[in-house]
Amino acid sequence: MNPTLEAALRSWPFDPWLLAALSITAAIYLRGWLSLRRRDPWRWRRGRLAAFFIGLTAIYLALASPIEPFSAFLLTAHMLQHLLLMMVAAPLVWLGAPLVPLLRGLPRPIRAVWIAPLFRSRSIRFALARLTNPGTALALFVAATWLWHLPAAYDLALRLNGWHYLQHTCFFATALVFWYPVIRPYPDRSRRSDWLLLPYLLAADLQNTILSALLAFSSRPLYPYYLQVPRLSGISAEQDQAIAGVTMWLVGSLAYLAPLVWIGIRLLYGDRPFSPMRVPAPIRPAQHSPRRPTTGAFDLLRLPVLGRFLKSPHARLALQLPLSVLAILIIVDGLFGPQVGAMNLAGVLPWIHWRGLVVLGLL
Questions:
Q1: What is the DSSP string of 201-213?
Q2: Which of 29, 186, 239, 334 is 20 to 30 A from 327, comparing alpha carbons?
């Protein structure tokens, strides 16, 4: 067995305080969820319970698995910690709609004496509403991400445990604030349009792309701390930083673009069943509507061969397959090709040409 892998399997730190906090939270949620499910099984389905528990598990893996000790030696491991907290744990916790089950699971005296006055406070409710406003949430999320990735702040967090805990707390707290407008966990009653979430998630993906590009394509290590620690498995500090940047780019883009696609489909199709291969029937004009003149207009669908292909129900699949093969080739070249950005397809096509075509397509 590889010595690094063997060391990773044996490096499970024991954090009783974290384990106790997560266990108590899980028990309170389960108690409240069971009580609510007896009254309304449709709303409190098992999926909510599974999402919340998986979110807590992601927090434990980020802070009390071999990722934690290895984060002191590998920037990639430290990046995995941040991604688990910000891209996995935070949205999963909100998907569990934890506010009502956690309140329901607490003992009645605690709810009545300590929690109820907080929820009745107008100032607290106003502050929470402002905090979860998309503009405020995005600003806090981006600020925390960039400030903690500055070399001075990042090195400070690596050298001092107190700052390290503060860094993780900031990442997770701002991630909760960021994902709240996207998921809107029950019993949220905000009436913001879902169209606002499209630029919201695109802006988050753009800043994630820029930061990950700075890490992946930097010609020198940005964090001096990793130049002073032993290197594992022969990975240099430059290679480790590049891998961390690519990891941040891939996981972050998936985390932002997956809900973006889902929201877009929901906005376009509503509650109707969505089938990518279904071609909608053409809408015939009313009898009294005059036909628009077509002379002088160029229409691809009227071309003999190309038009018939584009109107075919299999046209989309025929275009998707070669593009998928191209995407796979780009990924393979990124992993095994020249490890220089300007000579690698994964370093040139997605970062420069693809994003330029996206901008032109949107225009």
A1: HHHHHHHHHHHHH
A2: 239
pTM: 0.75
Residue 170, pLDDT score: 96
**Is residue 21 a contact partner of residue 59, using CB atoms and an 8 Å limit?**
no
Long-range contacts of 111-119 (CB under 8 A, 24+ apart): none
Pair of tokens at residue 174: 């701002």
Sign of the alpha-carbon torsion through 215, 217, 218, 221: positive
pLDDT in tens, 307-357: 888 888 888 888 888 888 888 888 888 888 877 766 778 877 777 677 767
* DSSP-derived 3-state class of residue 45: coil
Instruction: Please give the mean pLDDT across all residues of the chain.
Output: 85
Instruction: Judge residue 294's burial from the number of C-beta atoms within 10 Å of its C-beta, 0-12 exposed, 13-18 middle, 19 or more buried.
Output: exposed
Which residue has 């600020």 as its token pair?
143
Q: Which of 235, 239, 234 is nearest to 221 (CA)?
A: 239
Amino acid identity of residue 355, one-letter, is R
Residue 121 has a CB neighbour count (10 Å cut-off) of 12
In terms of residues, how long is the chain? 363
- CA–CA distance, 18 with 20 (Å, rounded to integer): 5
Residue 10 has which token pair? 């044996």
Residue 119 has pLDDT above 90, yes or no: no
Residue recorded with tokens 């807590």: 56
Tally: H helices and E strands in the chain: 19, 0
Report, in angstroms and rounded to the nearest whole number, the Rg of the chain calculated over CA atoms.
25
Burial degree of 101 (CB within 10 A; 0-12, 13-18, 19+): buried
Question: What are the residue ranges of helices labelled H in 270-351?
Answer: 306-310, 315-336, 345-348
